Amino acid sequence: MLVAAAVCPCPPLLVPEVAAGAAPELDAARAACADAVGVLAASRPDLLVVVGPADEAGLGVHHAGAAGSFDGFGVDLGVRLGSGRAAQERTLPYSLTVGAWLLGRAHWAASPVEGLGVAEDMEPRLALAAGRETGARAARVAVLAMGDGSARRSLKAPGYLDERAEDFDALAVRALAEADTDALAALDAPLAYELKAAGRASWQVLAGAAEDAGLAGRLLYDDAPYGVGYAVAAWS
After folding, report:
1. For the domain bounded by 2-235, which CATH number is listed?
2. For a designed S-S bond to 10, which of 20, 56, 98, 105 qualifies (C-beta 3.0 to 4.6 A apart)?
């Protein structure tokens, strides 16, 4: 059963070594993520599942100890998903690599950790089903849902400006703030894909895991500093 969840954005820029001189611009987001991870630790879970968008089709399971790195951004920095070393494990997608970095920064030791990569275009019904399965993995499950909102919030955004982006993000953020699983489940998947909202599938996995869990939500951060919607929330 799901006992707690945290929602965090997943840009590699969240890592100060990657952001370099621009690092202070996301200090508030980093602090909010640290607080959200703290809520997860306080819930004393038996299992933490980190969910995030990935290029792989469908679902990609990553075991404890799986490795990721930021070499692709010119930074010699590697991380592992929880403790241990996974044998013959695929490299973590960047969303889970950022999640692993957040956990490492928090010195996570509250429970075993696993990762779940989800395709950005995953159908909502499949994402919800994956979430229900995740929530049933242990008596006390926590989820760290990694994902960004739309990447079309301004003229300088990665996807350029789309007038629909702000309304989409407002709807999603409201649902995340209120732990409204029905509203998350109802997010428009084709529209999210057009708006490059990479977190939509992750949020719907969370919605599936949280069905009937009775969790309350709290919004810790909401901004679009680079024309991309970043939100941090904690459910407990």
Report:
1. 3.40.830.10
2. 98
